[in-house]
Amino acid sequence: MQIVKIVITGGYAAGKTRFIRTISDIEPVSTDYAVTTEEERALKHETTVALDFGVIAINERLSLYLFGTPGQERFDFMWEHLAFGALGYVVMVDSCRPAHFVETQRLMDRFASITDVPFVVAANKQDDETALPPAYVRRRLGVPAEVPVLPCVASDRSSVKRVLLSLLQLIAERVQD
Question: Residue 24: how many CB atoms within 10 A of its CB?
Fold first, then answer.
């Protein structure tokens, strides 16, 4: 059995925990605690403070270990630890909250300094009528043309699966080079 470590990262309330919960074959391990500020509570009631962990069996020979990072910068010390040994990562973006794109850009820059493994960007909440299209998300975040920016609905298993398969394809291409 081969295990591939994948990191799911993104800003606060981007959908990382939901993404892992939607696809994991096991009950995910979460380190969620009550949020502490009114501004945070406006978006959700709990936040990840260390990590989320889930597993998905791709087939009898391959499993993905999914490690979700905390989204708040005050917990960014975990990002490097979680990225260690990862073969790729997913950057989750709440495509309904363009005001948070700057936070996502900082996170992407930080991850680029931590690791050079392949990544994809998941433009989450595409089922919301206020969601910005992936092409707009790409432009606003300055995502290079070779990095896929994919539509995503973190609560939809087939959507999450498409994002992960796209990342696995990039990882496979890197391994073949």
Answer: 19
